[in-house]
């Protein structure tokens, strides 16, 4: 019997004569060894091992855990899956992690209950931050090729391209979604279009992009629930 201790309680792994048990122990010890080397300890919340491996881009650990029967859609205490975590990871190998999880049956449309975020929302939302995920567009292509709904809505009715409209320094995610067939005419729960979002964030590049491509279905004079047009929001 091997005991791995953390602050909260001991984690006990029983190893009998089954080689599979020993393999599982080796994988578990490998994870904790790597975390110890990185000096990373989470005292408040526990995360499934699959999530930790996805966050750090440990492809070999992901493969081992899945081969041992780990559920690719296991959720942590927040409701996120390893696919959500890998999408937002800044590690170079995280693109391969996304591919491995998808190949093993991870659901690209599984939502976090609190936010309604599917992995593609999580990915694009992370792109709005200073520390962008590694290979955002590559991961997006993998999700879409694997069956991710390009027009899936979050808790507030926002589609991925609504959120992509908030990325002020790069049009590539928006362009990819547009080229892959994302609907540009959909409104969120506040009846806001992608033009409203581009206006809120003062993103003239997105507005110029839309003017150049002249997509159908967009109403530049459309009003949200507060009776505001995109131009009204831009003036604020």
From TrEMBL:
<feature type="repeat" description="ANK">
    <location>
        <begin position="78"/>
        <end position="113"/>
    </location>
</feature>
<keyword id="KW-0040">ANK repeat</keyword>
<dbReference type="InterPro" id="IPR002110">
    <property type="entry name" value="Ankyrin_rpt"/>
</dbReference>
<dbReference type="Pfam" id="PF12796">
    <property type="entry name" value="Ank_2"/>
</dbReference>
<feature type="repeat" description="ANK">
    <location>
        <begin position="45"/>
        <end position="77"/>
    </location>
</feature>
<protein>
    <submittedName>
        <fullName>Uncharacterized protein</fullName>
    </submittedName>
</protein>
<feature type="repeat" description="ANK">
    <location>
        <begin position="156"/>
        <end position="189"/>
    </location>
</feature>
<feature type="compositionally biased region" description="Basic and acidic residues">
    <location>
        <begin position="215"/>
        <end position="224"/>
    </location>
</feature>
<dbReference type="InterPro" id="IPR036770">
    <property type="entry name" value="Ankyrin_rpt-contain_sf"/>
</dbReference>
<feature type="region of interest" description="Disordered">
    <location>
        <begin position="215"/>
        <end position="236"/>
    </location>
</feature>
<keyword id="KW-0677">Repeat</keyword>
